[in-house]
Amino acid sequence: MADEEALLKKGAYNLVKIREYSSERVDQISRAIYQYGGGKKIAECIERLRIREKLGCGNQEIIVLSVGELNKNKNHEAVIRAMPLMENQNIRYFIAGKGRLKNDLQKLARKLGLEHRVHFMGFQKKIAEIYQCADIFVFPSKREGLGLAALEAMASGLPLLTSNHHVIRDYSVDGETGYIFETESELADKMTLLAEDAVQRTAMGLHNRTAVIGYGLAGVHERMKNIYENLEKTNGKNR
């Protein structure tokens, strides 16, 4: 276990360092790294920089992302209200989704002086690109059937900040997949913690890529198979 943790931290550190490079620097070293099998990671980093630049974000800014309809249940308001509680001014909040609360949330952001740090992206067809350029995924829902967006974020290698809803806790594990919060103040503290620790963010993201596999099609099929097999065994005993 100690060896696995050491390897995870080493991999996280390497990813963090390469993400700190400018696009020019990445371009300079990309040919050499391709020769040693690192071409895929370099290509991902270049694409990540391109998307961030398109969003108006530098590489040193922290992109916190939520994906979901703008309604009361998705609770984006909690994240907006948590923003002024943080000293770190490099954190920017992007919401991908549309809904009837857009105007209310925009008014709240303006009231709190956050109009330049809270961004309403509307519906995004190429949502995978947005996940790729983000640093943290926040899922503040008051209730969920499962929470597909959070699972997509895990598959994209993002650490999670989630509400303490019982269904979300099936895959959101405090201190492993990211952090769970109860209040806006706690959310601000956890967001700051992840924003200021790039190695931890990346390590949790790498963990999430593996942890989410059980929620894929193959994993679901295996779970359903086990359920039916157990039911058959139980029915057989009762006959």
Number of separate strands: 6
Question: What is the 3D shape?
Answer: globular
The SSE string, one letter per element, is: HHHEHEHEHEHEEHHH
Number of domains: 1
- Describe the main β-sheet briefly: 6 strands, parallel
CATH homology-level superfamily: Glycogen Phosphorylase B
The chain-level structural class is alpha/beta
Please, could you describe this protein's structure?
This protein is of the alpha/beta class. It has one domain: Rossmann fold (3-Layer(aba) Sandwich), CATH 3.40.50.2000. It has helices at residues 2-19, 23-34, 39-54, 76-82, 102-111, 127-133, 148-155, 184-195, 198-211, 217-238, and strands at 62-67, 91-96, 118-122, 136-139, 160-163, 178-181.
Key terms:
single chain, 239 residues, 53% helix, disordered N terminus
Secondary structure blueprint with pairings:
Elements: H1 2-19, H2 23-34, H3 39-54, E1 62-67, H4 76-82, E2 91-96, H5 102-111, E3 118-122, H6 127-133, E4 136-139, H7 148-155, E5 160-163, E6 178-181, H8 184-195, H9 198-211, H10 217-238
Parallel strand pairs: 1-2, 1-4, 2-3, 4-5, 5-6
Helix pairs in contact: 1-9, 2-3, 3-6, 4-8
Question: How is this structure best summarized?
Answer:
The chain contains ten helices and six strands, in the order αααβαβαβαβαββααα.
